[in-house]
Amino acid sequence: MNTVSPSYLATIVDSCVQYGADRAKLLDILPQDEQLLQDVDIANEAIERNENRRVSVDSVFSILSKSAKITGKSEIGLMCGKNLRPSSLNEIGNAILCCASLRQAILLNRKYQSLTQQLGRTDLKIDGDIARLIWVPHYNDPEYGRRVTDLVMAGHAIFGRWLSWVHDKKINAVHFKHAKPDYADIYTEIFDCPVLFGQTENAMLIDVDAIDAPLPQANEILLSEICQRLDIALAKLNPAKLFGLRVAEALLAEMQNGPPNLQQTAKHLGVSPRSLRRSLALEQTNFRQILEQTRQQLCEKCLAEGKSLLKVAEDLGYSQQSAFNRAFKNWFGVTPKAYVRAQKLAGAAFDQMAP
To answer: Where residue 302 sits, what CATH number does that domain have?
Structure first.
């Protein structure tokens, strides 16, 4: 069953009440064991006590639908998205605030997103100079999930502005799969850019230099500490994926000695190659996917530490620079040298802005 964190749903409930919904009527439609968790303070206290309590994603759809009927505001999803704050995402929100760029924040959110909500996932695709922040929902009908899509996309826009307040960067355009609703003017007001409906994907189009611009509140040390806690929380949330995490940890150790391979990793874990493949298949993944994900995450860490491209390739276990270059471009949409050059230009621009 897909779930969301109590604090995430509690924020949505509070927003709906702010826009005219009756709290008692909203709580009446929730299962009894979820009603108490809709108090933000109680939800956060449960998290601090390390209680892994979750609520069904169905509750999000029910709350938004009921609120729209009570208030007469079909745009309630957009309005709730405007109210999302770092505290709504708990530790993920704190980690995002420590990121060095919007790109890093997007990738971090993608990794830990299921801790907050399992309504869908956010992907990042690079097409030349344009970055596409794509919302891929776990529901098939765009109209059924319209209010949830509205909420998520509005939340992304608000967070982006919060993080990059020193940069005068705007969203180029926003695409939605659902049809144009009767409150279309509110989209333009929130996103401040052209908004298109009936598109092939839910996406926010942004200049690549905007997502790579340095953020003023970056804190690498604190970010590392928070991510360690998030890794533990993610393992507890998805216990069936612990074997995949073990494979990733083994790969990190093996990369120090050259290119890793499946047989070597299986030996490291004390299992047969066949057993390794079977265990990963049960988790709907495979060795190559985990290797690529692990290399990409380590690459991001190495770049943040200022390591040379040659050293990064070595740390990732690439014996040939050309193979590293191809993988890098696949991950980030640009060559390693172009990426480093863009980072230097962005850093110089930020230094000029500093008082």
So the answer is: 1.10.10.60
